[in-house]
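Quick check before the chapter quiz. The format below is the same one you will see on the exam, so make sure you can read both the input and the output lines.
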Amino acid sequence: QVQLVESGGGLVQAGGSLRLSCAASGRTFSNYAMGWFRQPPGKEREFVAAINRSGNSGSSTYYTDSVKGRFTISKNNAKNTVYLQMNSLKPEDTAVYYCAATRYYSDYQRGAGAMDYWGKGTPVTVSS
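Here is the expected output.
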């Protein structure tokens, strides 16, 4: 089992920034590709960003088009933590953000149903 706990959500004005953190415990963190999903009010959960297992400076990352150039995912295997730096936030970024873990980086292309573990989420509200 892997336990995931998100933090860092909150209320921010449009154009502002937030950094989400996801602390993992349980199985070996470096064995998992990590990612973030979000669920806007009244909508389905959607993919945001993913990073492969290594977490090194040359890690492979993957983003949904709507956040490219604004969000950055990073992974610190020594701290068992994955981050999502969110800049230039827009009202349409308002959602509950969930951390996810899976053994295979390619699973993020298959969507939320392919994830092995989930956190409970942290809410992000962007006001206009």
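If your answer matched, good. The mean pLDDT is 94.
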